[in-house]
Amino acid sequence: MRALHIITGLGVGGAEQQLRLLLRQLPVDCEVVTLTNPGPVADGLLADGVRVVHLGMAGNRDLSALPRLTALIERGGYDLVHTHLYRACLYGRIAARLAGVRAIVATEHSLGERQLEGRPLTGAVRGLYLAGERLGRATVAVSATVAERLRRWGVPEGRIHLVPNGIDAEAFRFDAAARRRTRALLGLPEDAYVIGGVGRLAAGKQFGVLIEALAQLPADCRLLLVGGGPEEGALRQAARQRGLADRVVLAGESPLLPAPRDSRRPPLGALLSAMDVLASPSPEEAFGLAAVEGLAAGLPVRYAACPALEDLPRQSTAGAERLAPGAASFARALAALRAAGPRRLQVPGAVHHYSIARSARQLTGVYAQALAPTKGVTRS
């Protein structure tokens, strides 16, 4: 089977890195088209031996991209097209249909209650989404919460498939040597209590809540934020205004796997080893991958929203605790953890449940159903 994955961009983001992990596991001949931004994840895919094509799309309304994408699909002789993220799902489904491919799968990575990839969920956004969704055979939800949102939107039950995000747990195993190296590299004292946050530096992630919480914590506490995005300047300014500039470290984007062009940048696993707790203040998530990665690193996790954990039995999420949104509740919880002292926890069952190998096996089943000659696709 030959499959083409179409994604909006290949910067360091959750959906982008999830794609790279999946392609390492799928027993399928895969190629990738990125509409824009062939960033670090494109480099990683190329290093893995995956062909990556940059379509050079100029913006959301660059309609000239559609015939180019259609022609590319026609030339490739693909059996199946799999799209990721809003823009790629819209253009990719249309192009696949025009090219004569009917086995079209899309993964819904970022559907929240009120936002879709940071866009407010207006009637126009929802209408366009549903119009594109009808062109496909299957829509993959990354969590049971997202699957339920799709049902409420009116996506037919038979087209919804639950395939959770997955992680390579071994990449996050605690490493004491990496902890020392990474702290030294970032200027974090060995005896500091380090609160970590991982994700895109965007308004919806609300990392400013952690800066406000830090202001209420003892001077030995530090905040380490891993990620890039439009809110970086605002977060730096907030830290300066609170007199916390020397206690807040913005480490920038970090790949799950070492980046071929910048092997000196610590991978995410090393950065998690440098932390003492993982905090996720975002009140709305489609999955909450960072929380699962934190648990894989043996960290206590405190979060405002995480469908990945909320969808599982409580006994499999030991070490994680849901908090009320806001700086006050995070400050209280983090103060209690700091008083108890840094410790590594046993990796809970949730981490093993969200294995990338398991996700790849489930997705392979979705592909088989999408390729079936009958239209009656049942839910996996």
**Low-confidence parts, pLDDT < 50 over ≥5 residues?**
375-380
Q: Overall mean pLDDT score?
A: 93
Total count of domains = 2
Strand content: 15-25%
What global shape is seen? elongated
N- and C-termini, Cα separation: 20 Å
From N to C, what is the helix and strand string?
EHEHEHEHEEEHEHEHEHEHEHEHEHEHHH
What order do the strands of the largest sheet run in, or round the barrel if closed? Answer: 3-2-1-4-5-8-9
- What is the total tally of β strands? 15
Tell me roughly what share of residues is in helical segments: 25-40%
SSE arrangement:
Layout: E1 2-7, H1 14-23, E2 29-34, H2 40-47, E3 52-54, H3 65-76, E4 80-84, H4 86-98, E5 104-108, E6 115-116, E7 119-120, H5 123-133, E8 138-141, H6 144-153, E9 160-162, H7 176-186, E10 193-198, H8 208-214, E11 221-226, H9 232-241, E12 248-252, H10 268-273, E13 277-280, H11 289-296, E14 301-303, H12 307-310, E15 320-322, H13 327-340, H14 349-353, H15 356-371
Parallel strand pairs: 1-2, 1-4, 2-3, 4-5, 5-8, 8-9, 10-11, 10-13, 11-12, 13-14, 14-15
Antiparallel strand pairs: 6-7
